[in-house]
Write a structure and sequence with these properties.
Helix content is 9%, strand content 48%. It has a single domain, classed as monomeric porin ompg (Porin), CATH 2.40.160. The radius of gyration is 20 Å and the shape is globular. The chain has helices spanning 2-14, 36-40, 244-250, 272-277; strands at residues 70-77, 83-93, 97-107, 112-114, 120-123, 126-138, 143-156, 159-174, 179-193, 205-213, 219-225, 252-261, 264-271, 289-296, 300-310, 313-323. The strands form 2 sheets. The protein has a 14-stranded antiparallel beta barrel with strand order 1-2-3-6-7-8-9-10-11-12-13-14-15-16. A two-stranded antiparallel sheet has the order 4-5. By secondary structure, the chain is mainly β. Strand 7 (143-156) and strand 8 (159-174) form a beta hairpin. The N and C termini lie far apart (54 Å). It is built from 4 helices and 16 strands.
Length: 329
């Protein structure tokens, strides 16, 4: 019975990016955006340049000295009573270096353990936790490199698993031409303690993205290519390999953000892979689409986004950021 429960949990989170086709992958919760802005732009973005520390989960090279003494928290209201959150703090070191620490987790709510006869025998202890140590360095005036070392712990009642991994990122920004690029290797690592005897793979992938802001309008376009380490996608119903054109499009995530002032942003995104794998005969027409907005007040930044990471319901994420850089301790 418990094995059935665990399989359902893996499948549920696999739907985030159609990872249900990769049954030998573990720690799928790492692939949630953990950022309202990234969620609004389609779920992944490794190229936009903003003073938003929640984005360093997308690309550790986004971390910079402009985020000195910043604190950010995000919380996603997922399916049913499942909650997904993270908290991050950053500190500058000199003029070209910055580090940060963060934790991300999944709270599955109250889940009861039952027998095959539906007799309740107790509560299930289920949790996923990731701890992160970030570091970034300005390589040149336009190029920055970053790393995120992570320790992952997963508990599904009597089964536990531990993993170690790293994100490696590069970020290029040409401010004069309002153009930026990003390249990231995410979740590179391994499971060092398995749930049972079988060791599974980390959900590693390579992503590349470009962003371009229009010269005479406060609009920025982004395209992010994901899963570049694996090309072929398969139909979740028939199991057949998808066509080249279909596969090509589904490797892309499109985002547009409107930035009328430094204190306001509005963004929309479209994730073609999510839209395809959540397409059902009855509904889910909004699968793959996302929308969000953010407001920068005097001492705090507020952001929120709505997206569909599961066929049964939309998810809502809210984020808060504040900076202590001007506080004298």
């Amino acid at each position: 019975m418990l094995r059935t429960l665990y399989s359902c949990l893996f499948l549920s989170f696999g739907l985030l990016v159609a990872s249900a086709q990769e049954s030998n992958v573990v720690f799928q919760f790492l692939k949630f955006p953990y950022s309202a802005r990234a969620s609004a732009l389609g779920g992944s973005n490794v190229s936009i340049i903003e003073n938003d520390i929640s984005l360093i989960y997308q690309n550790p090279a986004f971390l910079g000295t402009e985020m000195d003494k910043s604190l950010n928290v995000n919380y996603m209201f997922y399916v049913a009573d499942i909650g997904i959150g993270n908290a991050t703090y950053t500190k500058a070191i000199g003029e070209r270096n910055c580090w940060g620490i963060g934790v991300n987790y999944v709270n599955y709510g109250n889940m009861q353990e039952t027998t095959e006869q539906d007799v309740i025998v107790g509560d299930l202890a289920i949790k996923d936790i990731g701890t992160n140590i970030f570091y970034a360095h300005d390589l040149t005036e336009k190029l920055r490199g970053g790393v995120n070392a992570k320790f992952v712990y997963s508990l599904y009642d009597e089964y536990t698993s531990i993993g170690i991994g790293v994100d490696l990122g590069l970020s290029y920004f040409d401010q004069e031409n309002n153009f930026s690029m990003g390249l990231v290797g995410k979740h590179l690592g391994r499971q060092v303690k398995a749930y049972d005897e079988e060791y599974l793979n980390m959900p590693w992938e390579i992503q590349f993205g470009i962003s371009k802001k229009l010269a005479h309008a406060p609009i920025r376009f982004s395209v992010t290519a994901v899963d570049l380490n694996r090309w072929n996608y398969f139909d979740m119903v028939t199991g057949e390999k998808k066509s080249f054109s279909n596969t090509f499009v589904q490797h892309l995530i499109f985002g547009v953000d409107f930035i009328p002032t430094e204190n306001l942003w509005i963004a929309v995104g479209y994730n073609a892979r999510t839209a395809s794998d959540m397409s059902l005969e009855q509904g889910n027409k909004m699968g793959g689409f996302s929308i969000g907005a953010g407001l920068n007040l005097k001492s705090i930044k507020i952001s929120c986004a709505m997206a569909k990471y599961h066929p049964s319901a939309s998810s809502f994420i809210v984020g808060l950021t504040t900076s202590f850089s001007e506080v004298k301790l």
